[in-house]
Amino acid sequence: MAAALRDVYGESLVKYGVPDEKVVVLDADLATSTKSVLFGNACPERFFDVGIAEADMVSMAAGFAASGFTPFINTFATFVASICAVSAKSLIAYSGLNVKLMGGNNGLTGGYDGSTHHGIDDINVMRGIPNMLVMSPSTPVMMDWMVKTLVQDHKGPAYVSVSRQGAGEVYEEGTSFTIGQAKTVREGTDATIIAYGLCVPRALQAAEKLAQEGINVRLVDMFTIKPIDRAAVISAAKETGAIITAEEHSVIGGVGTAVAEVLTEEGIAVPFKRVGIQDTFTQSGSYAQLVEIYGVGADGIAQAVRETVARK
């Protein structure tokens, strides 16, 4: 069973955050779900549960950052993209403050909580805020690296979209990553899947299945959605001749939109398809069911590749 990324996040926050006296952690009555509770248990004097007051939490984080601290704020991704968005824009990004916004339960991982708790528009909202770094980890190894980097290296506003679930590891321990540089998980010549989050391990399953059909697919993990790795998009389009984006997010405003922007601006015309949630409100259900219903599982990704390659 793959480790849930929210669990890895909580453990990594303790590992890298507790030794750094500048790190403070805030939550909005969801600490047991976001796993910030692990930091609270280990370091209660630097943990603040503000209750159901998400916008106030962001304002408090801005004050901490202006005083030299490194605040991590925690709530569900759908709330970061709504209740927190005004303060994130006007107080944090506008001033370039060193605040890390962590959006848990992203995509469909809210399951039975339904449409109000499914985070399918957070990337769209957060990538539109100037100065905001936007990332989403695909595996436990990457999640751990991301927390370490945000604590030790990166300074400035950042949003991280975190899954409640896990879908398998594709990287070895100690794999190095660089903000703004996509990671090629699998080489291929017939098409490229550009994905992030849990769609990466599922896209790898799809690529391996397609290989048995004679379709050789490259897989690119676009874990930094903003700034997007333009060079990776351009080379993938020119070298494989077809692009499929895959994300557990609306097809509007996510990585599919970002990739389309690059292709259009560069004047590159290749068969292109976005796998994601269409312009619709989602329904309640188990996570496994929802992934299949909305076509963002391995089978849905594989079928999108077949259709796109057929247009070459």
> Secondary-structure element sequence?
HEHHEHEHHEHEHEEEHEEHEHEHH
Helix content range of the residues, please? 25-40%
- Using only C-alpha atoms, the radius of gyration works out to 19 Å
Distance between the termini: 38 Å
Largest sheet: 7 strands, mixed
Uncertain segments are none
Per the CATH scheme, the topology name of the largest domain is Rossmann fold
Shape: globular
Tell me what portion of residues adopts beta-strand conformation. Answer: 15-25%
CATH fourth-tier homologous superfamily of the largest domain: Thiamin diphosphate (ThDP)-binding fold, Pyr/PP domains
Number of helices: 13
- CATH architecture field of the largest domain: 3-Layer(aba) Sandwich
Number of domains: 2
Structural class: alpha/beta
CATH class wording of the largest domain: Alpha Beta
Q: How many DSSP-defined strands? A: 12
Could you explain how this protein is built, in words?
By secondary structure, the chain is α/β, with parallel strands linked by helices. The protein folds into two domains: 5-161, Rossmann fold, CATH 3.40.50.970; 183-309, 3-Layer(aba) Sandwich (Rossmann fold). Helices cover 39% and strands 19% of the residues. The protein contains 13 helices and twelve strands. The strands form two sheets. Strands 2-1-3-4-6-5-10 form a seven-stranded mixed β-sheet. A five-stranded mixed β-sheet has the order 7-9-8-11-12, with helices on both faces. β11 (243-250), α11 and β12 (272-277) form a beta-alpha-beta unit. The protein is globular. It starts with a helix and ends with a helix.
